[in-house]
Structure formats: C-alpha cells, structure tokens
Amino acid sequence: MSFKTVPGMFQTLVNERPNLKTFYTKEDNGWQGVELIELQKFVEDFANGLKNLGVNEHDKVAIIGANSRKWAISDYAIAHIRAVSVPVYPTLIPAQSQYVVEHSESKIAIVQDAIQLDKVYSLINDANSNLNTIIIMDDSYDGGKDHVVKFSEVFNLKDEVHDIREISKSVQPEDLLTLIYTSGTTGNPKGVMLSHANICNNLLSIDDIIKAAMELNPELKPADGIERFVSFLPISHSFERVGGHYSIFSQGTSIYYAEMNFTPEILFENIREVRPTFLTAVPRIFEKIHAKIMDTVSEMTGVKKSLAEWSIGVGMQTVPYRQASKKLPFVLNLKYSIADKLVLNKFRAALGGKVRACSSGGSALSKEVGSFFCGIGISIIEGYGLTETSPVMTIGHPDFFKFGTVGKPIPGVEVKIASDGEILCKGHNVMQGYYKNEEATNEAIVDGWFHSGDIGEFDEDGLLRITDRKKSLIVTSGGKNVAPQPMEVSLTSNKYIEQCNVVGDDRNFISALIVPNKENLMAWAEKEGLASLDYKSLCAHEQTYEMFDAIVKYTMTNFSRYESIRKFALIADEWTVDKGELTPKMSIKRKVVIEKHKAEIEAIYNSPNTPVKTPDDELQLGG
Fold this sequence. Notes:
By secondary structure, the protein is an alpha/beta fold. Among the domains are: 6-171, 3-Layer(aba) Sandwich (Rossmann fold), CATH 3.40.50.12780; 394-469, Luciferase, Domain 3 (Luciferase, domain 3), CATH 2.30.38; 474-619, ANL, C-terminal domain (GMP Synthetase, Chain A, domain 3, 2-Layer Sandwich). The strands form 8 sheets. It has a 5-stranded parallel β-sheet, sandwiched between helices. β1 (21-27) and β2 form a beta hairpin. The longest helix has 22 residues, at 302-323. The radius of gyration is 25 Å and the shape is globular. The protein starts with 5 loop residues before the first helix and ends with a helix. 47% of the residues are buried.
C-alpha cells in the first residue's frame, strides 16, 4: 500500500478490504467489530457533523479518553477535514487537561465521559480559551450543560452536507495532522507538531519490518488468515498512536480495544480471549508476565518443576540462533520441540498462544526478560525514538537483533552521534516544531538535526545502543515520561525539606531521596519528645518518616498519579559541592547522587511494603 496522508491510507484500505472487520469492543454478547465499509460511513458522517459544528481547515480538536472505537472514529474524521487532532491523556488532572486544550487553541473537545467533561468545561466561558463545544462519547450523559453535544448526535448534524471524501483528497502531506503534548523538564508540556508526511513516512518505513515479524513462527498463523491486535497502551501517546492505531490498521489487522478501566487481570483475560498475533507493549507488561511465570515455576515441585526448568534452559540455548536467524542444530532443535510441546507453549498461552512477535518501546527492556521471551518463541522487537521523531528513529529487525540495542535507523532517516555523545536525527520523521514555542524549536532542531537529549553509540554491527540520558527526564518501566524538577521544587518549598532528588528511570513507580532541613527537623523533634535522639537516629525514626510521608502525600496531590512520588528515603547527610554531589551552581548531580545512594534506592524498590500499583501505573505510556 502506498499513501501520503492519513485519510489516503484509510480510504485505500477500505477500498482494498471493505468487508474486513475491525475496531472490536467487548459487549454483553461478546466481541463485536465493524466492517470497514461501515466504518467509512461512520467516519464521514462524523466528519460532516464536525463541519456543521464549525470545525474548519487547520482548526484544533482535542480528544480526551481511553482507547475506543469512538476515539478512532473521531481521529480519522478530524484528519478527513484537514483539521488537527490534539490527544489528551484521560489520567491528567484538570489543570493539566485545561492547559493542553487552551494552549492548543482547540475549538472542540471530544471527551469520554462526565469526568473528562468536568475537567475542561470551565474553558467554555473562559475568555482566553477557543473552546466552544464539548462532544461527550457517553450517550447516557444527561447533565443538562450548555454547549455539550452527545457523540451520537454529531452523525445527524446535516444542516449542510459536505463531500467529506472529496475534502479528504485536498489534505496535503505537509498539513499538520496532530499536536501531541509531551512532558518537559521544567513544567508545562510542549506541543509537538507532526504532519501527515511525518506519520505516513514513518508508517511506510517500518512496514516491512512489522510484516517480517508477522511471518515469524508461521505455524501459529490463524486459520482464517486475519491478524489480530489488542490495543491497550494509551492511544494519546505517539508509540501506540503510530505503532498500533495507524500502523496495525494500515496493514489490515483487526484491532480489539481492551475493556474500559481495565485491571491487569482483565487485560490479560482480554488478551487470552482475542488471541492476538502481534502485540505492542511497554517493558513493564513483559516484566509482569515473566515474573508471573517464574513465580509459578518456583512454586512447582518434583518432576514438574525439573521439567519446567529444563524447558526454559533449552529455550535459552536457542536464543543466539534466533537472534541471527540461524537454523537450530539437530539435537537442540529436537530438544526444543519436546520442551515446546510439554511446557513452553503453555507459557505462550499467557499472551493467548498465537503471538508470534511483539514490539516494545517507551523504556529499556532488560536482557533477562528479552531472552526469556525469545526462548519461549516470542521475538520482541525493540525500537527507539521520541514523539518529536514521529516517533520511530531506529528499529530492530527480527532477522538480526541484540538485546540492549534498538536497531538501525529506519529508511529515509539519518542518525549520528555528536561529539558529546548525544544522538542526533535528521529526516522525514523530524517534527515541524513545538507549537507556539520557536525558542524551544530552535534549541531542539539545529541545521535540520534534531537533538534527542539522549546519549548513545553504534556497535560494530551498526546497531544503536542507548547509554545514558543527557536530560533529566525520567522514563518509568511503564513508558511514562516524568519531569522530576516540578516535584522537587514543590517538595523543597516545604520548610522541613532541604534537598530532593526524584528517581524512577526504568522503575515501576517514582520515588525520591530527601535530605531534611536539619535545623527545622531538630526543632520539630523537641516538640514531639524526640530531643534525646541524635540527628541520624532521628532521620531513621518511624515517627519522622510518618511526618515526611504526610508532607509528600499532600504535595503530590498537585500531580497526576503516574508522576507522583510513592516512596522515599531520608538522607541525613546534605549533598555538597565539596563532595562532588552538587555543581558549582548548586545543581544536583543526579548520576553521582543516585550512585552514592544505590543501596537506599534498592531498598525502596525491594522492600515488602512497596506500593500497590494500579493499571495507570503499569500500563500507561506518557508523552
């Protein structure tokens, strides 16, 4: 398939496979999909309704909600009329949602339910906002608010009938398709401007690799020949938006939407029911599955346990051959066939039993986890990129890959390493810039080269390895981007906190190292009857931790759950310039501090009272 715009891709697929069913949702009578020819009418009628609501070329329309058929219809309809979609995470707090809608100058917001509506409704009467109408996906809503239209009503707004298909042909490759807001290191997010050309070239550049992955383990190919995909990572994020929403759709794969407000248990139940053939996930998902399988094995006894451990060991022996697409030696192949028949196929059943390959992104996948899945017959393709690069910059190939690397540059894209080790990128994937932020754009793109803020190197085989982060932005194991500075600033404004260093890279929640203000803490201790304790003992006292826990919890109410500090360690010794922990400008040297307090950090994440995670923590992927 060849296309230059998102509507062009959509219409081409409809013409080629009009009766293919996709966009399945789970209803009372099971999973129900819609044929492409019917979906085409939904998209065009909804687009016509948007036109009647006053949406013109290049106008912005925000979409606030979880992955769903209605989200997808909204997105394709907006693209068909040369308007611009602005995805907003449904997990954001009201102030953050309002910022994105207001800053993007969105005229209309399409929201999932009353909760999301209430977050942005005040903008309707705000003189600084362009928002004039809110469309609510929940047709049972009956709040009686002005300027609110139900989703189903939009299809019937036909005061003027527009030829949507003809309008879609006028969309130009360089037209702005979407504004995706990504977390910054100093507070407000920046709106990344991505064109149709950015996204479509990215899709076409990774198409062959995705198809090659689909050909792995042909014995698992579904009898009806229809590939299946479960969409659960947040569609508001560029990884799922391109890697799942657009890429998978363009290949004629049936998309199934995980149930709303799913828990990990419900998600895995959905996956087992759908039996997907390809899966896109963040490392945290693979970590959970791996941990669950290994826990199950550890609880086995006798011959059953020995057989499981032997089978895993055989699987691991096959990994080097699979990485280089080499044929297994006769004896190893025989052993693997036995191991697979007796044990390994049961492990694959955790993902439905039909998955032949997966893609992982958002943060680094550990070698241990990657090797395990490869050994049980599921190859995980790793890639690298940012929202600013549409998002794929490099991607691994199923025919040759190494754990700890993220592949080679995609066709049409150049990647090089600057003298200071920073990864630079030039090509069709580089954003148009940051919306209404020329200064930040000029800092990020110099002479056509996008500066990633990451440090990396190419190995002897030309595969990129990410070695460090130039910026302080934290990426959790769930793929969420978290800016530490706003949290640190908020906490150190409290009189009991002298210094704070937020941590959480490749971890499943955010934590912090906190240095108390010694003078104020000692004064508190005297009032609390703890004056007999020396300072270090006071920092380790349970009552002190309870006091700081209350401070942290109160401060974190100003942040979304995924970017909130869950646990902390109190550090008695202040960080100083003399000890190399601070720069001359008194900025914390994060790497030095983290290395120095490695033991405290490990204790945070390995203690038995680790916080209970929610689906948002583990499965959401942020900007």
